[in-house]
Amino acid sequence: MSNSKKIAVLAGDGIGPEVMAEALKVLEVLERQTGLTVQKTAADVGGIAIDNHGKALPESTIKTCEAADAILFGSVGGPKWEKLPPAEQPERGALLPLRKHFNLYANLRPAIVFKGLAGASPLKSEIIGEQLDVLVVRELTGGLYFGKKERQADWASDNMVYTRAEIERIAHIAFQAARQRGKKLCSIDKANVLTTMVFWREVVTEVGKQYPDVALSHMYVDNAAMQLVRNPRQFDVILAENMFGDILSDEASMIAGSLGMLPSASLAGAPGKEGAFGLFEPSGGSAPDIAGQGIANPIAQILSLGMLFQYAFGLPEVSKRVHDAVQSVLDQGNRTRDIHTAGTTLVNTKQMGDLIVKALA
């Protein structure tokens, strides 16, 4: 692996710049520890890009990303830009085009309840247990979101289309992820109603024959939504198409208690030893209501950096090191406002970043 890497840093809007600053402090430590030299190039995206360039995803930002090995993304959006036409607003005008341009078809979104944080979950502690770690693998560039759309005065339609190749490639990533975890994969569909989902189940089953060490099960999406609340510990890796994955990953993340704790990765291929190009971002949004107050939780952004090292740089041991540093800081009783409870120490955004840097060092 080359000792020199490039990342595009897209902090975005709201709390994005605040939490990104803490992740970049962590990155400095990881560079020293790994011997890597990481060239960091900042670029505008989302609302700030609209203000500075007239569009949410300027050509200059795309070129910066094209020249990089990975994208470290913050968050976009806010009330300032909500009156723009929907396609021009920060979220639709930036994230969807980025996914399409770089073919980021695989979204990996872990829902983790760190040890000691079960009380932050809206579910009872006996349901969560001491810890919870579920990985949702979502197909990101197909299905209803990217199918043909039509609108007339009295009707509208969105087409769900999946090809065999699209299903196979996301299934392989899910099975490979399951192989490195608890060797259980639950594929989500609605095969009792949708023809596309009958096809989805058939193809996933065929791919599963190549992974005899992984236990494959299938579940209808409505039942999966219920089971995530009833008994989330039954799941290890969940595989879902685009819309179902969008909904279930949000549900799974809220089980963890705070979006400020949860990272995600969107990949353009299965990572090999040298990694795969991807976009790494917190699962939460720009939180404009708390922006600028120094109270945002930077852990999701820092864990997203850890996922970048794992999937883009091919260094899973670095991701584990970051995870362990976060757990160590939490074990010491340090909490940002979103996860603060009686008997713990309230810290601000910068203090949390400093504590994680210290734990890593």
3D structure, described in words:
The protein is an alpha/beta fold. The protein has 2 domains: 1-104 and 269-361, Isopropylmalate Dehydrogenase; 122-255, Isopropylmalate Dehydrogenase (3-Layer(aba) Sandwich). The chain contains 12 helices and 14 strands. It has helices spanning 16-34, 47-53, 59-66, 90-101, 125-128, 164-179, 195-208, 221-230, 242-255, 299-311, 316-331, 349-360, and strands at 4-12, 37-42, 70-75, 106-113, 132-139, 149-151, 156-158, 184-189, 215-220, 237-240, 263-267, 278-282, 334-335, 345-346. A 10-stranded mixed sheet has the order 2-1-3-12-11-4-5-10-8-9, sandwiched between helices. It has a two-stranded antiparallel ribbon with strand order 6-7. It is globular and about 50 Å long.
What are the SSEs and their pairings?
Blueprint lengths: L3 E9 L3 H19 L2 E6 L4 H7 L5 H8 L3 E6 L14 H12 L4 E8 L11 H4 L3 E8 L9 E3 L4 E3 L5 H16 L4 E6 L5 H14 L6 E6 H10 L6 E4 L1 H14 L7 E5 L10 E5 L16 H13 L4 H16 L2 E2 L9 E2 L2 H12 L1
Parallel strand pairs: 1-2, 1-3, 3-12, 5-10, 8-9, 8-10, 13-14
Antiparallel strand pairs: 4-5, 4-11, 6-7, 11-12
Helix pairs in contact: 1-10, 1-12, 6-7, 8-9, 10-11, 11-12
